[in-house]
């Protein structure tokens, strides 16, 4: 059903986008930009759905691939669900409501917290670091070993989470510029008098609002400011979490 829906949505939005291009509607018009973003979004969702069908081998395949849940989810003692929940719950830590409610009623202990997931245990991280170190030794068996090889092994074993944390931090810092820009636009707009949006361009019998006119409205800027601050705090929290978790795993491995 999803494959059929994403295919129809992608085709209809693509046709609409092509019609806009044929009639001279450009990036200066808000509806053109939104349609282009929807084409990209629906195309990505369609690609994800096709990849899921290919990997899981269902719908068009006679023998679908059996999917087993992770071992941590099969173990009732594991209650740390951060790696297994959806993206929204990861960003808001909604799955921790049970812990928070329990902590309000009584002090929590190790039994309430439960076991660590396999990926966060010291033995798992030690094996990961040891494999990376042995790979570095085999690559550079002729050259003398030193601190440089150790740093390479650490980067190979734990470099990706740190890179992800740095990416989140950069995105949060970039979103920090949105606040002053939105406030400046709001003050400038209110100083002139917050006039209502009056679209002037009419194409194919439909009024089109320009992107500049839409983004110069104080109410729109206020909403953008709210979401920018929300995303900034979310990215900052995600950056801190990934960095702290990686540091704990690295310390356990060493």
TrEMBL record:
UniProt-listed InterPro entries: ABC1_TM_sf, ABC_transporter_C-like, ABCC8/9
Top-level taxon of origin: Eukaryota
Family: Belongs to the ABC transporter superfamily. ABCC family. Conjugate transporter (TC 3.A.1.208) subfamily.
Protein name: ABCC8 protein
PANTHER family xrefs: ATP-BINDING CASSETTE SUB-FAMILY C, ATP-BINDING CASSETTE SUB-FAMILY C MEMBER 8
GO biological process terms, semicolon-separated: potassium ion transport
Keyword set, alphabetical order: ATP-binding, Glycoprotein, Membrane, Nucleotide-binding, Repeat, Transmembrane, Transmembrane helix
Species this protein is from: Xiphorhynchus elegans
Gene: Abcc8_2
Keyword Flavoprotein: no
A single Gene Ontology CC term: membrane
